[in-house]
Amino acid sequence: MIIRTTVINIVILIINFVTSIIAARYLLPVGRGKLAVVLLYPQLMANICLFGIDKGVSILSGQIGIRRKISVVLKLSLILTVPAVALSIVFAYNQIIDTDIRHLSLLYVAYIPSFFIMMFSISLFLGAGNYKNYNLIRISYYIAYLLILILLLVFQKYKVKDFVIANLAAQNIAMVVAIILLREGNEKVISNKLKDNKSGIGRIFFLSLIFVVPCLMQNLAIRLEQIIVVKYLNNANIGIFVVYLAYSKLIAPITNAISVTVFQKGIEKKKYFVLRVVRSSLTIYAILLFGMSLLADPLIDIFYGEVYKMHMGALYLLITAAFFNFSAQVLNENMKAEKKIKQELVALTLYVLCIVFVISISLKRYGLYSVATAMLIGNIIRYLTIMALFIHRNKVGFIEMALVTREDLRYIVRKCKLHCVKVKNIFSVF
Q1: Is 49 helix (H, G, I), strand (E, B) or coil?
Q2: Nearest Cα to Cα of residue 183 among 173, 192, 175, 191
Q3: From the CA atom positions of the chain, what is the Rg in Å?
Protein backbone atom coordinates (compact mmCIF):
# COMPACT_ATOMS: atom_id res chain seq x y z
CA MET A 1 0.00 0.00 0.00
CA ILE A 2 2.71 2.47 1.05
CA ILE A 3 5.01 1.33 -1.77
CA ARG A 4 2.30 1.66 -4.42
CA THR A 5 1.30 5.12 -3.23
CA THR A 6 4.97 6.07 -2.91
CA VAL A 7 5.58 5.12 -6.56
CA ILE A 8 2.77 7.44 -7.60
CA ASN A 9 4.16 10.11 -5.31
CA ILE A 10 7.62 9.76 -6.80
CA VAL A 11 6.08 10.43 -10.22
CA ILE A 12 4.35 13.47 -8.69
CA LEU A 13 7.67 14.51 -7.14
CA ILE A 14 9.40 14.39 -10.54
CA ILE A 15 6.59 16.30 -12.28
CA ASN A 16 6.46 18.88 -9.48
CA PHE A 17 10.23 19.31 -9.69
CA VAL A 18 10.08 19.84 -13.45
CA THR A 19 7.23 22.37 -13.24
CA SER A 20 9.04 24.29 -10.50
CA ILE A 21 12.14 24.44 -12.69
CA ILE A 22 10.10 25.71 -15.64
CA ALA A 23 8.54 28.46 -13.50
CA ALA A 24 11.86 29.45 -11.93
CA ARG A 25 13.80 29.44 -15.21
CA TYR A 26 11.32 31.36 -17.33
CA LEU A 27 9.93 33.78 -14.74
CA LEU A 28 13.26 34.43 -12.94
CA PRO A 29 13.28 35.37 -9.23
CA VAL A 30 11.13 38.51 -9.61
CA GLY A 31 8.48 36.79 -11.76
CA ARG A 32 8.53 33.69 -9.54
CA GLY A 33 7.98 35.95 -6.56
CA LYS A 34 5.01 37.60 -8.25
CA LEU A 35 3.50 34.18 -8.99
CA ALA A 36 3.87 33.23 -5.32
CA VAL A 37 2.00 36.38 -4.26
CA VAL A 38 -0.81 35.65 -6.76
CA LEU A 39 -1.31 32.10 -5.46
CA LEU A 40 -0.86 32.82 -1.75
CA TYR A 41 -4.22 34.18 -0.52
CA PRO A 42 -6.64 32.01 -2.57
CA GLN A 43 -4.71 28.87 -1.58
CA LEU A 44 -4.43 29.97 2.04
CA MET A 45 -8.13 30.80 2.39
CA ALA A 46 -9.22 27.61 0.61
CA ASN A 47 -7.15 25.49 3.01
CA ILE A 48 -8.29 27.43 6.07
CA CYS A 49 -11.95 27.10 5.03
CA LEU A 50 -11.62 23.32 4.84
CA PHE A 51 -12.07 23.51 8.65
CA GLY A 52 -10.86 19.91 8.94
CA ILE A 53 -13.99 18.69 7.14
CA ASP A 54 -11.82 16.62 4.80
CA LYS A 55 -10.77 14.61 7.87
CA GLY A 56 -14.41 14.08 8.78
CA VAL A 57 -15.10 12.81 5.25
CA SER A 58 -12.19 10.34 5.52
CA ILE A 59 -13.25 9.04 8.92
CA LEU A 60 -16.91 8.56 7.96
CA SER A 61 -15.95 6.97 4.64
CA GLY A 62 -13.61 4.57 6.42
CA GLN A 63 -15.98 3.67 9.24
CA ILE A 64 -19.38 3.18 7.56
CA GLY A 65 -19.14 4.71 4.07
CA ILE A 66 -20.91 7.67 2.48
CA ARG A 67 -24.12 7.47 0.50
CA ARG A 68 -24.73 9.71 -2.54
CA LYS A 69 -21.06 10.57 -2.85
CA ILE A 70 -21.34 13.17 -5.62
CA SER A 71 -24.15 14.99 -3.84
CA VAL A 72 -22.24 15.14 -0.55
CA VAL A 73 -19.01 16.34 -2.20
CA LEU A 74 -20.75 19.03 -4.24
CA LYS A 75 -22.80 20.32 -1.29
CA LEU A 76 -19.76 20.53 0.97
CA SER A 77 -17.79 22.30 -1.77
CA LEU A 78 -20.56 24.84 -2.36
CA ILE A 79 -20.94 25.60 1.35
CA LEU A 80 -17.23 26.23 1.87
CA THR A 81 -16.62 28.06 -1.40
CA VAL A 82 -18.59 31.12 -0.25
CA PRO A 83 -16.43 32.07 2.78
CA ALA A 84 -13.19 31.07 1.00
CA VAL A 85 -13.92 33.30 -2.01
CA ALA A 86 -15.05 36.19 0.17
CA LEU A 87 -11.91 36.06 2.34
CA SER A 88 -9.64 35.73 -0.70
CA ILE A 89 -11.12 38.87 -2.26
CA VAL A 90 -10.84 40.84 0.98
CA PHE A 91 -7.19 39.89 1.51
CA ALA A 92 -6.30 40.52 -2.13
CA TYR A 93 -7.63 44.07 -1.94
CA ASN A 94 -6.09 44.79 1.46
CA GLN A 95 -2.70 43.07 1.24
CA ILE A 96 -1.61 43.21 -2.43
CA ILE A 97 -0.47 46.68 -3.47
CA ASP A 98 0.54 45.94 -7.07
CA THR A 99 -2.61 46.29 -9.22
CA ASP A 100 -1.62 43.70 -11.83
CA ILE A 101 -0.76 41.09 -9.21
CA ARG A 102 -4.01 41.83 -7.36
CA HIS A 103 -6.08 41.31 -10.53
CA LEU A 104 -4.36 37.97 -11.16
CA SER A 105 -5.00 36.93 -7.57
CA LEU A 106 -8.69 37.76 -8.00
CA LEU A 107 -8.71 35.70 -11.20
CA TYR A 108 -7.14 32.78 -9.36
CA VAL A 109 -10.01 32.79 -6.86
CA ALA A 110 -11.84 30.72 -9.50
CA TYR A 111 -9.65 27.77 -8.45
CA ILE A 112 -11.39 27.44 -5.07
CA PRO A 113 -14.55 25.42 -6.02
CA SER A 114 -12.57 22.86 -8.02
CA PHE A 115 -10.04 22.61 -5.18
CA PHE A 116 -12.78 21.68 -2.69
CA ILE A 117 -14.30 19.09 -5.00
CA MET A 118 -10.90 17.51 -5.56
CA MET A 119 -9.99 17.53 -1.85
CA PHE A 120 -13.25 15.99 -0.63
CA SER A 121 -13.08 13.32 -3.34
CA ILE A 122 -9.51 12.47 -2.33
CA SER A 123 -10.52 12.31 1.33
CA LEU A 124 -13.49 10.07 0.57
CA PHE A 125 -11.39 7.55 -1.35
CA LEU A 126 -8.58 7.70 1.22
CA GLY A 127 -10.92 6.86 4.10
CA ALA A 128 -12.41 3.97 2.15
CA GLY A 129 -8.93 2.61 1.40
CA ASN A 130 -9.45 3.10 -2.35
CA TYR A 131 -5.86 4.13 -3.10
CA LYS A 132 -6.29 3.67 -6.84
CA ASN A 133 -8.84 6.49 -7.17
CA TYR A 134 -7.08 8.50 -4.48
CA ASN A 135 -3.88 8.46 -6.53
CA LEU A 136 -5.61 8.96 -9.90
CA ILE A 137 -7.17 12.26 -8.83
CA ARG A 138 -3.93 13.59 -7.40
CA ILE A 139 -1.70 12.66 -10.30
CA SER A 140 -4.20 13.98 -12.86
CA TYR A 141 -3.59 17.52 -11.62
CA TYR A 142 0.19 17.29 -11.89
CA ILE A 143 0.18 15.66 -15.32
CA ALA A 144 -2.30 18.24 -16.63
CA TYR A 145 -0.24 21.12 -15.23
CA LEU A 146 2.97 19.80 -16.81
CA LEU A 147 1.38 19.28 -20.22
CA ILE A 148 -0.17 22.76 -20.19
CA LEU A 149 3.18 24.33 -19.24
CA ILE A 150 4.85 22.49 -22.12
CA LEU A 151 2.23 23.96 -24.46
CA LEU A 152 3.00 27.41 -23.06
CA LEU A 153 6.68 26.94 -23.82
CA VAL A 154 5.91 25.75 -27.35
CA PHE A 155 3.88 28.91 -27.97
CA GLN A 156 6.43 31.05 -26.08
CA LYS A 157 4.05 32.19 -23.33
CA TYR A 158 6.26 33.10 -20.37
CA LYS A 159 4.24 35.66 -18.42
CA VAL A 160 3.00 35.24 -14.85
CA LYS A 161 -0.59 35.36 -16.13
CA ASP A 162 0.06 32.34 -18.36
CA PHE A 163 1.28 30.27 -15.40
CA VAL A 164 -1.77 31.28 -13.35
CA ILE A 165 -4.16 30.20 -16.13
CA ALA A 166 -2.24 26.92 -16.52
CA ASN A 167 -2.67 26.22 -12.81
CA LEU A 168 -6.39 26.99 -13.01
CA ALA A 169 -6.89 24.74 -16.02
CA ALA A 170 -5.04 21.83 -14.37
CA GLN A 171 -7.13 22.18 -11.21
CA ASN A 172 -10.35 21.99 -13.22
CA ILE A 173 -9.14 18.92 -15.10
CA ALA A 174 -8.45 17.20 -11.75
CA MET A 175 -11.96 18.19 -10.62
CA VAL A 176 -13.50 16.52 -13.70
CA VAL A 177 -11.49 13.36 -13.03
CA ALA A 178 -12.72 13.36 -9.42
CA ILE A 179 -16.37 13.68 -10.44
CA ILE A 180 -16.02 10.85 -12.98
CA LEU A 181 -14.50 8.53 -10.34
CA LEU A 182 -17.16 9.49 -7.80
CA ARG A 183 -19.87 8.75 -10.35
CA GLU A 184 -18.44 5.27 -10.96
CA GLY A 185 -18.29 4.63 -7.20
CA ASN A 186 -21.87 5.82 -6.74
CA GLU A 187 -23.24 2.66 -8.31
CA LYS A 188 -21.75 0.31 -5.72
CA VAL A 189 -24.06 -1.65 -3.42
CA ILE A 190 -24.45 -0.01 -0.02
CA SER A 191 -23.98 -2.25 3.01
CA ASN A 192 -26.76 -2.79 5.57
CA LYS A 193 -24.66 -0.98 8.14
CA LEU A 194 -24.49 2.07 5.88
CA LYS A 195 -28.23 2.03 5.16
CA ASP A 196 -29.00 2.27 8.86
CA ASN A 197 -26.79 5.29 9.44
CA LYS A 198 -27.09 8.90 8.47
CA SER A 199 -23.99 9.49 6.42
CA GLY A 200 -24.72 12.94 5.07
CA ILE A 201 -23.52 16.49 5.63
CA GLY A 202 -24.60 16.75 9.26
CA ARG A 203 -22.66 13.69 10.40
CA ILE A 204 -19.55 14.84 8.51
CA PHE A 205 -19.69 18.25 10.22
CA PHE A 206 -20.10 16.55 13.59
CA LEU A 207 -17.06 14.31 13.03
CA SER A 208 -15.05 17.32 11.83
CA LEU A 209 -15.70 19.55 14.84
CA ILE A 210 -12.69 18.21 16.70
CA PHE A 211 -10.38 19.11 13.79
CA VAL A 212 -11.54 22.71 13.19
CA VAL A 213 -9.13 24.55 15.48
CA PRO A 214 -6.09 22.32 14.76
CA CYS A 215 -6.61 22.64 11.01
CA LEU A 216 -6.94 26.42 11.25
CA MET A 217 -3.71 26.52 13.26
CA GLN A 218 -1.95 24.11 10.91
CA ASN A 219 -2.79 26.07 7.77
CA LEU A 220 -1.79 29.32 9.42
CA ALA A 221 1.49 27.77 10.54
CA ILE A 222 2.21 26.32 7.09
CA ARG A 223 1.70 29.67 5.36
CA LEU A 224 2.84 32.03 8.12
CA GLU A 225 6.41 32.37 6.91
CA GLN A 226 5.18 32.90 3.34
CA ILE A 227 2.80 35.64 4.50
CA ILE A 228 5.69 37.36 6.29
CA VAL A 229 8.05 37.00 3.31
CA VAL A 230 5.42 38.35 0.90
CA LYS A 231 4.65 41.29 3.17
CA TYR A 232 8.17 42.39 4.10
CA LEU A 233 10.59 41.20 1.37
CA ASN A 234 10.89 42.17 -2.30
CA ASN A 235 9.69 39.99 -5.20
CA ALA A 236 13.19 38.69 -5.98
CA ASN A 237 13.73 37.38 -2.43
CA ILE A 238 10.20 35.96 -2.44
CA GLY A 239 11.06 34.04 -5.62
CA ILE A 240 14.30 32.69 -4.13
CA PHE A 241 12.51 31.68 -0.92
CA VAL A 242 9.81 29.82 -2.86
CA VAL A 243 12.46 27.88 -4.81
CA TYR A 244 14.34 26.98 -1.60
CA LEU A 245 11.13 25.93 0.12
CA ALA A 246 10.15 23.77 -2.87
CA TYR A 247 13.58 22.11 -2.93
CA SER A 248 13.50 21.40 0.83
CA LYS A 249 10.13 19.68 0.36
CA LEU A 250 11.06 17.60 -2.67
CA ILE A 251 10.42 14.39 -0.76
CA ALA A 252 7.01 15.64 0.45
CA PRO A 253 5.11 13.23 -1.88
CA ILE A 254 6.91 10.33 -0.19
CA THR A 255 6.20 11.67 3.29
CA ASN A 256 2.56 12.27 2.34
CA ALA A 257 2.24 8.67 1.16
CA ILE A 258 3.52 7.48 4.54
CA SER A 259 1.35 9.94 6.49
CA VAL A 260 -1.94 9.10 4.75
CA THR A 261 -1.28 5.39 5.27
CA VAL A 262 -0.59 5.99 8.95
CA PHE A 263 -3.82 8.00 9.18
CA GLN A 264 -5.85 5.28 7.47
CA LYS A 265 -4.30 2.53 9.62
CA GLY A 266 -4.87 4.70 12.67
CA ILE A 267 -8.59 4.64 11.88
CA GLU A 268 -8.32 0.83 11.82
CA LYS A 269 -6.31 0.96 15.09
CA LYS A 270 -3.36 -1.10 13.77
CA LYS A 271 -0.83 0.08 16.34
CA TYR A 272 2.01 -2.34 15.50
CA PHE A 273 1.94 -1.40 11.81
CA VAL A 274 1.93 2.31 12.69
CA LEU A 275 4.97 1.98 14.97
CA ARG A 276 6.86 0.14 12.25
CA VAL A 277 6.13 2.93 9.76
CA VAL A 278 7.10 5.64 12.28
CA ARG A 279 10.44 3.95 12.97
CA SER A 280 11.24 3.41 9.31
CA SER A 281 10.24 6.90 8.23
CA LEU A 282 12.80 8.63 10.47
CA THR A 283 15.66 6.75 8.81
CA ILE A 284 14.25 7.26 5.31
CA TYR A 285 13.81 11.01 5.84
CA ALA A 286 17.30 11.43 7.28
CA ILE A 287 18.97 9.62 4.37
CA LEU A 288 17.00 11.43 1.66
CA LEU A 289 17.39 14.91 3.15
CA PHE A 290 21.11 14.41 3.81
CA GLY A 291 21.55 13.46 0.16
CA MET A 292 19.59 16.54 -0.89
CA SER A 293 21.92 18.72 1.22
CA LEU A 294 25.02 17.27 -0.40
CA LEU A 295 23.63 17.84 -3.90
CA ALA A 296 21.95 21.18 -3.24
CA ASP A 297 24.67 23.47 -4.59
CA PRO A 298 25.15 21.78 -8.00
CA LEU A 299 21.44 20.97 -8.43
CA ILE A 300 20.28 24.54 -7.75
CA ASP A 301 22.86 25.78 -10.25
CA ILE A 302 22.00 23.21 -12.94
CA PHE A 303 18.23 23.25 -12.67
CA TYR A 304 17.26 26.69 -11.41
CA GLY A 305 20.25 28.83 -12.34
CA GLU A 306 23.07 30.62 -10.55
CA VAL A 307 20.81 33.56 -9.77
CA TYR A 308 19.06 31.40 -7.14
CA LYS A 309 22.31 30.62 -5.23
CA MET A 310 22.44 33.93 -3.40
CA HIS A 311 21.35 32.59 0.03
CA MET A 312 22.36 28.91 0.09
CA GLY A 313 22.80 28.92 3.88
CA ALA A 314 19.08 29.56 4.21
CA LEU A 315 18.40 26.50 2.03
CA TYR A 316 20.42 24.20 4.31
CA LEU A 317 18.47 25.49 7.30
CA LEU A 318 15.18 24.79 5.51
CA ILE A 319 16.25 21.24 4.61
CA THR A 320 17.06 20.54 8.28
CA ALA A 321 13.72 22.05 9.30
CA ALA A 322 11.99 19.75 6.80
CA PHE A 323 13.28 16.64 8.64
CA PHE A 324 11.58 17.66 11.89
CA ASN A 325 8.47 18.82 10.01
CA PHE A 326 8.03 15.51 8.17
CA SER A 327 8.79 13.45 11.29
CA ALA A 328 6.19 15.36 13.30
CA GLN A 329 3.65 14.93 10.50
CA VAL A 330 3.72 11.13 10.66
CA LEU A 331 3.14 11.05 14.43
CA ASN A 332 0.45 13.67 14.22
CA GLU A 333 -1.56 11.94 11.47
CA ASN A 334 -1.83 8.78 13.54
CA MET A 335 -3.09 10.67 16.57
CA LYS A 336 -5.59 12.64 14.47
CA ALA A 337 -7.00 9.35 13.17
CA GLU A 338 -7.81 8.56 16.81
CA LYS A 339 -9.46 12.01 17.12
CA LYS A 340 -6.68 13.32 19.35
CA ILE A 341 -5.93 17.01 18.80
CA LYS A 342 -4.21 18.18 21.98
CA GLN A 343 -0.75 17.49 20.58
CA GLU A 344 -1.41 19.55 17.45
CA LEU A 345 -2.91 22.52 19.28
CA VAL A 346 0.01 22.73 21.69
CA ALA A 347 2.68 22.10 19.04
CA LEU A 348 1.29 24.55 16.48
CA THR A 349 0.79 27.27 19.11
CA LEU A 350 4.45 26.94 20.11
CA TYR A 351 5.48 26.89 16.44
CA VAL A 352 3.59 30.09 15.60
CA LEU A 353 4.92 31.88 18.68
CA CYS A 354 8.46 30.83 17.79
CA ILE A 355 8.14 32.00 14.17
CA VAL A 356 6.72 35.37 15.18
CA PHE A 357 9.30 35.94 17.92
CA VAL A 358 12.43 34.96 15.96
CA ILE A 359 11.40 36.82 12.81
CA SER A 360 10.35 39.94 14.71
CA ILE A 361 13.81 40.35 16.24
CA SER A 362 15.92 39.38 13.24
CA LEU A 363 14.11 39.82 9.89
CA LYS A 364 15.36 43.33 9.09
CA ARG A 365 18.97 42.33 9.64
CA TYR A 366 19.12 38.76 8.32
CA GLY A 367 16.28 38.53 5.77
CA LEU A 368 15.77 35.00 4.45
CA TYR A 369 18.17 33.57 7.03
CA SER A 370 15.89 34.88 9.76
CA VAL A 371 12.86 33.11 8.25
CA ALA A 372 14.76 29.84 7.74
CA THR A 373 16.16 29.87 11.30
CA ALA A 374 12.70 30.55 12.73
CA MET A 375 11.28 27.62 10.77
CA LEU A 376 14.05 25.29 11.99
CA ILE A 377 13.62 26.19 15.67
CA GLY A 378 9.84 26.10 15.36
CA ASN A 379 9.82 22.65 13.72
CA ILE A 380 12.20 21.22 16.32
CA ILE A 381 9.90 22.44 19.11
CA ARG A 382 6.84 21.11 17.27
CA TYR A 383 8.40 17.67 16.73
CA LEU A 384 9.55 17.30 20.35
CA THR A 385 6.09 18.31 21.62
CA ILE A 386 4.20 15.87 19.39
CA MET A 387 6.71 13.08 20.06
CA ALA A 388 6.35 13.45 23.85
CA LEU A 389 2.55 13.31 23.65
CA PHE A 390 2.67 10.37 21.17
CA ILE A 391 4.90 8.38 23.55
CA HIS A 392 2.63 9.18 26.49
CA ARG A 393 -0.54 8.33 24.53
CA ASN A 394 0.71 5.01 23.12
CA LYS A 395 2.73 4.03 26.19
CA VAL A 396 5.84 3.22 24.18
CA GLY A 397 9.47 4.00 24.87
CA PHE A 398 11.55 6.34 22.72
CA ILE A 399 13.75 3.47 21.51
CA GLU A 400 10.73 1.37 20.48
CA MET A 401 9.39 4.33 18.50
CA ALA A 402 12.60 5.65 16.93
CA LEU A 403 15.06 2.80 16.27
CA VAL A 404 14.55 0.66 13.16
CA THR A 405 14.65 -3.10 13.79
CA ARG A 406 15.92 -5.85 11.52
CA GLU A 407 12.36 -7.02 11.07
CA ASP A 408 11.41 -3.54 9.83
CA LEU A 409 14.22 -3.58 7.27
CA ARG A 410 13.31 -7.08 6.07
CA TYR A 411 9.68 -5.99 5.70
CA ILE A 412 10.67 -2.90 3.66
CA VAL A 413 13.02 -4.91 1.42
CA ARG A 414 10.40 -7.61 0.88
CA LYS A 415 7.76 -5.06 -0.11
CA CYS A 416 10.18 -3.22 -2.40
CA LYS A 417 11.10 -6.44 -4.20
CA LEU A 418 7.45 -7.39 -4.59
CA HIS A 419 6.50 -4.07 -6.17
CA CYS A 420 9.65 -3.97 -8.33
CA VAL A 421 8.50 -7.26 -9.84
CA LYS A 422 5.04 -5.75 -10.46
CA VAL A 423 6.54 -2.69 -12.15
CA LYS A 424 8.81 -4.91 -14.25
CA ASN A 425 5.83 -6.99 -15.37
CA ILE A 426 3.92 -3.85 -16.35
CA PHE A 427 6.80 -2.56 -18.50
CA SER A 428 7.39 -5.98 -20.05
CA VAL A 429 3.98 -5.67 -21.71
CA PHE A 430 5.31 -2.76 -23.77
Answers
A1: coil
A2: 175
A3: 21
- What residues contact 201, with CB distance under 8 A and at least 6 apart? 72, 75, 76, 79
- H/E run at residue 335: helix 312-337
Q: Which of 388, 374, 249 is nearest to 323 (CA)?
A: 249
User: Which residue type does 354 have?
Assistant: C
Buried-exposed string 149-162: b where 16+ CB fall within 10 A, e elsewhere: beebeeeeebebeb
Residues 6+ apart with CB under 8 A from 263: 58, 126, 333, 334, 336, 337
Q: What are the helix and strand counts (H, E) for the chain?
A: 18, 0
**pLDDT of the chain along its 430 residues, tens only?**
555 666 787 788 889 889 999 999 999 999 999 999 999 999 999 999 988 888 888 888 877 777 778 888 999 999 999 999 999 999 999 989 899 999 999 999 999 999 999 999 998 988 888 888 888 998 999 999 999 999 999 988 889 999 999 999 999 999 999 999 988 755 443 344 444 444 578 888 887 887 788 778 778 877 888 888 888 888 899 999 999 998 998 888 777 777 766 766 655 555 666 777 777 778 888 888 999 999 999 999 999 989 999 899 999 999 999 999 888 888 887 776 666 777 778 888 899 899 999 999 998 889 899 999 999 999 999 999 988 888 877 777 777 676 777 777 776 677 666 656 655 554 454 4
Handedness of CA 344, 203, 182, 262 (dihedral sign): positive
**Contacts for 141 with CB less than 8 Å, ≥ 6 apart:** 118, 170, 171, 173, 174
Are the C-beta atoms of 31 and 239 separated by less than 8 Å?
yes
DSSP 404: P
| Closest to 65 (Cα-Cα) out of 134, 109, 125 | 125
Cα–Cα nearest to 127, from 182, 64, 191: 64
Distance of CA 406 to the CA centre of its chain: 31
Cβ contact 271:395 at 8 Å: no
Rounded to 5 degrees, what angle do the CA atoms 259, 260, 264 make? Answer: 120
